[in-house]
Task: structure prediction
Amino acid sequence: MTVNHLSVQLRKIGTKGSLNQIRKEGLVPGVVYGGDKPNTFVQFNRKNLGKILKRSGKGTNALIELMVPGEEQETVMIRDLQWNVLTGALIHADFYRVSLSQPITAEVPLTWIGEPIGVKKGGLMQPGLRSVLVECLPAQIPERLEVAVADLNVGDKLTVADLQTPPGVKILEALEEVIVSILSARVEEEPSPPPEEKREEIKPPAAEVNGLAAK
Result:
């Protein structure tokens, strides 16, 4: 089990102005909640959390030990991250407390392994799900679930029931849910020929009888 450590400082509930000041100093405001404890308001170095997200390989499913000076360490996971839409900078983080002995739910991404036979023949691979909801202990959350698709031909599909999970990990999705299928490529239909124009019927003058013009 890999546990990451993040040093944080306590802060007071901030106004919009005070939160912006925290960000100008290169820090990110955050809140810790859950369990039987009241919410705790913290701030931390933006780069330190970025390193954890890259190093762990689990993204927001990473286990983090929050280290507060003079306080007891708390094991948390990331509940939500907010980003500046213009700069892409992290501007807020929500952490929730977890117990290593209590199961939790988490979203785990799916990774496709191999190139389907059907795709090599010109078919199209259509993902149905890109992640699945699982239940397990926090330390057992997989980084990803691999899905072998190399043997799939046109018309084949895989469902949640086909997924292989590590011991202790339970998938909460419906077993019949399609996770990937191989479709045949659409054949472009030849355009239909335009309808034949109907020639205008020329009627003889009313005075014309038996092919002879009236005199």
Q: What stands out?
A: The two ends are 113 Å apart (CA to CA). Residues 2 and 39 are 25 Å apart (CA to CA).
